[in-house]
Specification:
The protein is mainly alpha-helical. The protein is built from 19 helices and two strands. It has two domains: about 375 residues, no CATH class; about 70 residues.
Length: about 450
Amino acid sequence: MPYWIQDTLLATPALAWMFLGVGLPWALVALPRHDWRDKPMMALMALAFGPALVTAWMFVLGSWQTPLLRLEWVLAGTALIAAVGWALVWRKRRLIPGGRGELPVPYGEKHTQPALDEKLLVALIAVALVIRWLGVAYWPFSAYDALWVYGYEGRLYTLLGYIPNTIGYYPQFLPLQYTYLQLATGGVINDHTARAVIPFLHLGSILAAYTLGNRLFNRRVGVYAAALWALYPHVAEWSRFGDLEIPTTFLFTAAAAFFLLAWKKSSVFSLQFSVQNSALSTQYFGLGTRNYAVIAGLLLGIGMWTKPTMGAFIWGVALLAAVELGLWWLEQRRGRPVRSPRRTARIHVVLWTGLACLPLGAVWYVRNALLGHPLITLPTDFWLTLAARSGAEFGWPLLAVLLTVGYVGTRYIVSLRGGNAEQHDGSLLLILLGLALVLAGVLPSMIEPRRMAVLEWLALAA
């Protein structure tokens, strides 16, 4: 077996402990009891919570300027975290029944067998993951950011046993995972071992896309959303670098999925559970709504623990809250009595999300402020000037448009030969005109790389 596969496989026990030992129990604690049947959602939560809890504990150890960041201390702390989590799971299982039929299916889709196209897409995603695992295992850190920041920091903390006070810049979610895997395999600097976590974060992003589509719409939408993300060529490229883009997308999408679930379910609801001949009454402002809002906040916090650009999620939440407050203000102006439990519950969703994100989401930025580093480091304007914003950015969507037009044109020609007069309505001419406008908008800046001009944007829009 090649050494690079052996080195990558060495990290398997440490990964299993992080995801299954630490992450899974806290995923079960956070999720409403009826969601335990949703295995992709549980896997998504375990892939997010496991690294978050491990790296949070490692940050506590590493903040002392003495070499406490060692395997025995990491395992001791995570063992305590896991033990508390499993104890809470056991208690939750006793108090809240979750057998079949005792709680409603949390979304309207019936449990039907997957269609052939769904099975094919899942198989393609599985093949893509295997190929990307091999790519991640084969290469050491080579991409610019991963090499000089994240991979380097993981090595530095492994050697020193702490996070130097001179380190600022971005948060430590990813570098500390690289440190954890190198500590767990003997404390030896090994890029192949450190990078073993990358495919699992990529898998988490695929599960987040699936959960977003599945729980807001249905399983078919979830499978297609996951496939569109997993099989997109740019994602295939970024999935092997070990940079922050994939985990940030993972956490942003997952946070959005749970926040929108809470937003949709905002209505007063009461559940009665019978426990040991006594009634346990738990008042929710929606079935699972508070859980989902808190989970969204926790995922937002993990995202802020990954990269400050995750703060874009906050703007989205603020916009929704502003709309709700604006509607409330209009009702007040019109003299209407405000008796909308749903509107009140939605403001509660925002509050719970905001509160839950603070512990992990703010800790690195507070630490930077205390040490005199910039509070938040964001990409400079220099990076924005590098963005081409040319027609080349539409390469893959343009290919999809060309294939679609080719398919429609072929069907149209077949209908002509069949003498179907109903199809001879000039629709193909309009489609070709639209394609010509698209090409007029994007081709000039593809042939001569530059930013698209106003007239080209107008042609594309038309």
